Amino acid sequence: MPELPEVEVLVRHLRPRLSGQRIGQVEVRRAKVILPSKASSFASTLRGGKFVSVERRGKFILFRLRSIKRRDFLLLGHLGMTGRMFVVPKDAAEPKHAAVVLHLGKEKLVYQDTRYFGRLTLDTRPLERLGPEPLSRDFDISEFARRLKRSAQPIKIRLLDQSLVAGIGNIYASEALHLAGISPRMQAKRLSIGQIEKLAKAIRAVLKKAIAGGSTIPLDWAGARAKNEFFYFGPAQNYYVERLLVYDRAGKLCHGCGKQIRRITQAARSTYYCPSCQRG
DNA sequence: AACGCCGCCTGATCGC
DNA sequence: TGCGATCAGGCGGCGT
Fold it and tell me: Which residues of A are catalytic?
């Protein structure tokens, strides 16, 4: 799942490749990903627009564009479960399930999404619901604690709520809880202040480390040819999946204590943890 | 208002 | 071997 680190790595990759480029023809191959815009208005709004900046907010990609009339507006991207973005030469073959193609002269930006859960849209309302950025100063521990204190849900489930903290998904929720030594099953309101502080630190540490390690996202489509395409990072040196501590490691040994990692299901999602290192 | 559950999608895997 | 059934999972929407 593309989460904050994957999106950050992708944004850093796209930024120099897109800034200053002007959009020509706009192809919407799968209309649902641009909802609620209509294909015609989406295309006419984008056409002629110039990329001014590429930023990240939570798991969203913010493309700031400047129209011919020098009016700035945002194009919002979300990768959902299986979304990818590639800047490739204009004549390059396209991957299966290319949902939107923005032509940029000698190149093109391809938004590909196997399951079409993602978005590339002019509707910026989803940003209003987001909680603080965990890697910025906006991430306030006392507010984090206050919100956790009023929930009886397991902490793992709470961490997936984007209005609590923006950008954490299924992978890094498990990873952060492991690093903090907290059981994913523990009710949010039962965490001590000490545990909450430890968790906040762990969240930041895990996300930073994943960004530095290149996260788990393939940026180079030509290189993404492994059996499980998502877990292949083009240039082999940045292959962060191998450094995940618990995620997708059921039955394998915990690096901390040597006992087996366990997989459980919470709210219909897989959670991985070490029952020995993460008690409570 | 917190919380559980469904539907959206496709591809991988499972069961017969 | 082949083919249909099942499952995964971010997130919005809806009902309680």
Answer: 2-3, 59, 269
